Amino acid sequence: MRITDILTQNSRLYRDEIALVERIPASKTQKELTWHQFYTTACRLAGGLHHHGIKKSDTVVQLMTNSLEWLPIYFGILYTGAWAVPLNFRFESDKIALCTKTAEAKAFIFGEEFIDRIETIRHELSVSVSVWIFTGPRGSCPDWAYPFEDFIRDQNQDMPPTVSSSDDDDAALYFTSGTTGTPKAVLLTHKNLTHACEVEHQHHGQTHDDIFLCIPPLYHTGAKMHWMGSFLVGGKCILLNGVKPEWILEAISEERCTIAWLLVPWAHDILIAIENNMIDLDQFNLDQWRLMHSGAQPVPPSLVRKWQKYFPHQDYDTNYGLTESTGPGCIHLGLENSHHIGPIGKSGHGWEAKIVDKMGNHLFGNETGELIVRGPGVMKAYYKNPEATRKALQNGWLFTGDLARYDKDGFIWLVDRKKDMIIYGGENIFPNEIENFFLTHEKIKDIAVIGVPDERLGEIPAGIISVKPNCMICESDIQQFQQGLPRYKRLRKIFFGDVPRNPTGKIEKPKLRRLYAEDKRKDLQKLLR
Questions:
Q1: Burial class of residue 175, CB neighbours in 10 A (0-12, 13-18, 19+)
Q2: Which of the residues 178, 236, 464, 485 could staple to 489 if both were Cys, CB 3.0 to 4.6 A apart?
Q3: What domain range includes position 39?
């Protein structure tokens, strides 16, 4: 089955039922689409693209923030047989150009926020891009682009173009977040995408009556693939544009949402607001909210314990995945194991997982090694990057680059990213373990641990600490608190400041290394000359 077949089916089964609702709490407005409107918008965009020469295996860039049109546009691209190429809306002009050129995009669909960024690179992109489509207000449309409403209005058919295709066909090109370097292009097939629907549905048992709250950016596999469990059964989705704690709870309360996937920082902010009496849970109708799940980064056990204290009747699940595995689900904790706080879980539906050493030998017990996974969601390849593909894909196994270990019950614990590991005087230090320890401190909102170059020890652990609102903490408090850590894991450098995270909640450690470690590294290089 192709992923587009599910939308066609939903339009037939649930024609006039609401499929998507967009809430914009800042302006107190909202819009909605029925399943039939969702389908026909996608069909008309597909017809327009087909009319302008977009054909099977061409590529179409989608650069938009979350909106009611985002998903219909994504499916409209797929209906043509072309590849959808969603881009990170935080990318600056150089990254947009790099990704568009890598994809050799034939069409480019963009929102109002990106006009200036595109203007600076449009000439060089026009070598391949022949169609520009603007989704913003008509009055702001550049003279070199088609207004979206006009582009689809000219198409009067309510069926997609006839394209010979199968579930083995390529469907989408997703660029990794680049937290460990330059973004890589991940090629996914229709089979990858439909398996993500099945995984999510198997894990969380969505029914047609469930209502899913979607907040994270849709360009990323995480949010979209979690929604796909509801998509599979024609469930309603609420798209929330805004992440304030009160906005999240208002949306769940007023829209009667039953499932919400929250990034760790958002769940953390909700708990802080509750603890500081900024939010009164009694003011919201939350009895129907049956499941909160999280992931996209290590989930601190202290956060889950606090969450279960305030929401004791709610199911919880930890999800693990990556773009290369078509988003979350290759490992998950499971609703039946929500009492087993800390690990990311066990193999997901249709997946296998192993932890291996540098030689590829299977590790057991408490030994730390690299987590590898195998299943129908594994990407086809890194597009135009055969060397990276060979390293990542071996005998059907995807090497994740994440370090993990088993506990005595066979659950997998995420230790850290391979590239984030600190080698301190010959000892391996995993920043995630230190970060989890400090997040139990009642005054610490967030922390990132990085390695800072040291002439004698190679690297020393440094912490960038963000303090909760209306709280005060000093370095001596940190020094006293970390006596609970083994000596070699204690922070040797302490900085107070913001902890930058990307739209999917991951700490932007390359940015922190540039801010806090690069000058030190350059000084050491001069010293060693």
A1: buried
A2: 485
A3: 3-19+31-195
Q: Which of 195, 225, 245 is the last residue of a domain?
A: 195
Q: Is 127 inside any structural domain?
A: yes
Give the pLDDT score at 474. 93
Q: Under a CB-based contact definition with an 8 Å cutoff, are residues 214 and 240 in contact?
A: yes
State the Cα–Cα distance between residues 279 and 483, nearest whole angstrom. 34
Residue 527 has pLDDT above 50, yes or no: no
CB 115, CB 144: distance < 8 Å? no
> How many helices (H) does the chain have, and how many strands (E)?
17, 27
Q: Return the CATH number at 157.
A: 3.40.50.980
Q: What CA–CA distance (Å, rounded) separates 445 from 441?
A: 8
- Distance between CA atoms of residues 167 and 203, nearest Å: 22
CA distance 239 to 368: 39
Whether 60 and 29 have beta carbons less than 8 Å apart is answered as no
Handedness of CA 270, 274, 277, 280 (dihedral sign): positive
Residue in 121, 204, 217 with CA at minimum distance from that of residue 177: 217
Could you report the per-residue pLDDT of 118-129, keeping only the tens digit for each? Answer: 999 999 999 999
486 is a domain residue? yes
Look over the chain and give the mean of its residue pLDDT values, rounded to a whole number.
91
CATH of the domain at 462: 3.30.300.30
The residue among 195, 226, 251 that closes a domain is 195
Q: How many Cβ atoms sit within 10 Å of the Cβ of residue 489?
A: 19
In this structure, is residue 144 part of a structural domain?
yes
Pairing, β 369-374 against β 397-406:
antiparallel
Alpha-helical regions (H) of 156-275: 190-204, 221-231, 245-255, 264-275
Cα 268 to Cα 28, 101, 185, 312, 413: the distances in Å are 24, 38, 31, 16, 21
**The total number of structural domains that make up the chain:** 2
Q: Residue 509, SS3?
A: helix
Of all residues in the chain, the percent with pLDDT exceeding 90 is: 74
DSSP single-letter state for residue 82: P
Is residue 374 one of the residues assigned to a domain? no
The packing angle between helices 70-79 and 35-51, to 10°, is 50
The 10s digit of each residue's pLDDT in 413-446 is: 988 777 788 878 667 788 888 998 999 999 999 9
